[in-house]
Amino acid sequence: MPLPQARFESSQPTIGELAQRAQLGAETLRYYERLGLLAPTQRTASGYRLYAPQAIERLDFIRRAQALGFSLAQIGELLALHARPEADMGAVRTLVAQRLAEIDAKMDDLQRMKKGLQTLLDACPGHGPTAQCPILGALRNGEPT
Questions:
Q1: Which helix (H) or strand (E) holds 34?
Q2: What distance in Å separates the CA atoms of residue 63 and residue 28, rounded to the nearest whole number?
Q3: Tens digits of residue pLDDT in 53-110
């Protein structure tokens, strides 16, 4: 969900103002800065970080990409491509295709786990001593599920 339009006390918000507006912790913004996802435009004489008013839009981009399951490293790649309007969109398409392949692999793993759990569940009568539990026996003996 996009964040409401930013209204900052100054033309360049501090990390606290930006964190509050983005509903994130200041430490999260510092982490994004260490990863190169977000950069202050300048620092005050006392060392406070100041950000461009568009930083909230960048944080919206990061939030939307995270909601689609992109890692922060992948988001960094997407942001780098976004910053280069002349770059070929094929690189973006490749990143999305890779993410889809990751999701497909995870779904295959989840289906395998579900099938294994269902097999274990079907083998268990649900009553009696645990010494005779087929689920525990299968886990103990490493039987395939």
A1: helix 26-35
A2: 12
A3: 899 999 999 999 999 999 999 999 999 999 999 999 999 999 999 999 999 999 999 9
Which residues lie below 8 Å from residue 40, measured CB to CB, with a gap of 6+?
A: 15, 33, 49, 50, 51
8 Å CB contact between 60 and 40: no
Dihedral (CA of 7, 31, 85, 90) sign: negative
Count of residues making up the chain: 145
Computed over every residue of the chain, the mean pLDDT equals 91
Element (H, E) at 96: helix 90-123
Cα dist from 55 to 5, 21, 25, 97, whole Å: 11, 10, 15, 27
Q: How far apart are CA 58 and CA 32, in angstroms?
A: 11
What is this structure's pTM?
A: 0.76
- Tell me the three state secondary structure of residue 133: coil
